[in-house]
Give the backbone structure.
Amino acid sequence: MSNTIDTILKQVNLSKEDIIRLLQTNKEDRNKIFTHAAKVKAEYVGRKVYYRGLIEMSNICSKNCYYCGIRLDNKNVERYDISDSNIIDAARFAHKNNYGSIVLQAGEIISPKFTKRISNLLKQIKEISNNKLGITISLGEQPDEVYKEWFESGAHRYLLRIESSNPDLYYKLHPKDKKHDFETRLSCLKSLQKIGYQTGTGVMIGLPFQTYEDLANDLFFMKDFDIDMCGMGPYIEHNETPLYEYKDLLMPIDDRFTLTLKMIALLRILMKDINIAAATALQAINPIGREKAIKVGANIIMPNVTPGMYRNSYKLYENKPCTDEEAADCTNCMEMRIGITGDEIGYNEWGDSKHFEKRRS
Ligand code: SAM
Ligand code: SF4
């Protein structure tokens, strides 16, 4: 068995069966995958971790994804929308603390007013940082012209998870209606790539009804799509969401955690030079979850710079970490945490996807 894993890892191309086999490995074999992925990371993107200061600017959302704690129909959520000046202050904090980039994330709102607001924020963030802060946005599905306007206003990376590349599973996670259409999500991803964004996607891991084959297909989906960045993390149930009904179908949370690490390691092996984020949801399960992800292939971390008073209301899932902290606490804690991994922090660098650079040239 262990020889076979060694043999699989030596192959240039992995088949779906190989991937499924690797996803099902036991502890000893799993460590072989992790060691191999760490080598690939060191060779292709280096042992550097780049910061993206995460600003969760609003939890107001027009959608009803079955898994998400801030979905429209969850009436128990106290909704917030951080003022523009507080958002700019959070970006300024990131810049002053030598973060190379920020991420603006929110629930999904489609309106001319929201479009303009984001455009203005992007321009202001560029201005206050002398064009030094890189900007990733994660604001859901939008019309092409909106994506274009935001790109021209200064955003250069976009994160839109496919959540699952299997349409049948997608519709177990979302209402089957116009607002939650799998094809629309795909076409949004294609538009982002065409407009010129560094395009990121990802999936949740350990979902009810999800199979190992689904996960292997997700990895191949990302490879075929030729993504530049990935943010994927464990699914964590939230008791105020419809998907909670299936909690008894879930694998134990620690297994979801390990499976996520395997997915990260395998994606690093399959797509050697992309950027891979160590998802915050990993930290909700294990206090050093993100550091473990960095050890097995991730190279991006998103310290939360959202003002502390709002964090408790951006609860996508249960046990979301650091909701009682302020941005400065995160910065100090983060430096120490990256230190444990032995990687260096790419202060003041955008840390763009090397894959994107190659693709463009
Ligand atoms: N509204 C935008 C969107 O959906 O792309 C951006 C914000 S949304 C909260 C960001 C991500 O949170 C989603 O892509 C989803 O994968 C993740 N998420 C939501 N609920 C989750 C849960 N219960 N467990 C793990 N991840 C979750
Ligand atoms: Fe809204 Fe995004 Fe949550 Fe879906 S995942 S309900 S779009 S915030």
About this structure: The domain at 43-360 is CATH 3.20.20.70 (TIM Barrel). The chain has a mean pLDDT of 95. Residues 61, 63, 65, 68, 70-71, 107-108, 140 surround iron/sulfur cluster (ligand 2) (CB under 6 Å). The chain has one domain: 43-360.
